[in-house]
TrEMBL record:
Keywords: Coiled coil, DNA-binding, Nucleus, Transcription, Transcription regulation
Record has Plastid as a keyword: no
InterPro entries: RKD-like, RWP-RK_dom
Source lineage: Eukaryota, Viridiplantae, Streptophyta, Embryophyta, Tracheophyta
Limits of the RWP-RK domain: 1-58
The UniProt record lists the keyword Nucleus: yes
Source taxon at top rank: Eukaryota
Protein name: RWP-RK domain-containing protein
Length: 106
């Protein structure tokens, strides 16, 4: 959940929540990272179905991404590994190509 929503639900100000998080060792709120991983999981599943990739391979990648998501939820300061970053960039590129093709067809 976004940090503003968390602050509202806890009935505290945004600044106070940020200060408390930093005291507890959470330098950044992990919502965007978690949301990015959720989108990446969805994209990998869609691309796997469209391209007809091996289901086992797609399932393995999705499982690794879900493990990474759980790790981020437990340790918000953890960084994404290089493979996840490369996969995310490849998905961004694939989505860009799709949008471009749709724009050309119109």
């Amino acid at each position: 959940m976004p940090i503003k929503q968390a602050a509202q639900e806890l009935n505290v100000g945004l600044t106070l929540l940020k200060k408390r998080c930093r005291v507890l060792g959470i330098p950044r709120w992990p919502h965007r990272k978690v949301k990015s991983l959720e989108t990446l999981i969805k994209n990998v599943q869609e691309i796997g179905k469209e391209t007809g990739q091996d289901e086992d391979q797609t399932r393995n990648v999705v499982e690794k991404l879900q493990q990474t998501k759980k790790m981020i939820e437990q340790r918000p300061d953890a960084k994404l590994d290089d493979r996840t970053m490369m996969l995310r960039q490849a998905c961004f590129k694939e989505n860009y190509k799709r949008r471009r093709l749709l724009a050309i067809e119109r």
